[in-house]
User: Fold this.
Amino acid sequence: MADHAAPPGPRSLSVPLGAFTAGAVVAVLLGVLGRVHDPTLDQTTDLGFRTVIEMKVVLSTVIGVLVLLQLLSALWLYGWIGGRAPTWLGTAHRVSGTLALLLAVFVGYSCLWALGLEVGTLHIGEAVPLRAVVHGVLGCAVFGAVVVKLVAVRARRAPGWFLPVAGGLLLTLLVAVVLTSAGWYVAERGWLSHGGY
Assistant:
């Protein structure tokens, strides 16, 4: 059976502009939710870890590894490293990206629900550390970047630069979020060494 799909139309900047606008709206709405929501550990899970924070550190580390695999596979698919990419690499890239996204949604939900978007002063009168503020803002931006990336993957009329830029933006934000969470935790407290792992 022949494919009779119409060829893509002319390239348009309206696609990336619309995607970046929608992504910004999502990020801002998540930030607003994080500010007005009353943080609670109710309706969160620790997946069998001792604490929610330990679960988030482990899953964030897995996300970090998946993001690095995303970078390497994207560079290989675009022909920037190695020889010809194997035929299975595109599928592996999509699967690892989907898994990283699902884990990020899970961890992001746990962060936003349990902690909210902390700025200013905590309820105990202690100033919120700059790292926590940056992490929270970047975490909201990640999900805006997810919107941009999903549009870029599906857009047929977007300029050729849009998909690599969207992917690079999401990758950069995810790395920054992992470094300001799991990276910070491990640097401050060491790797989780409690029983049960």
In short: Confidence is low (pLDDT under 50) at residues 1-6. The chain is about 65% helix and 0% strand.
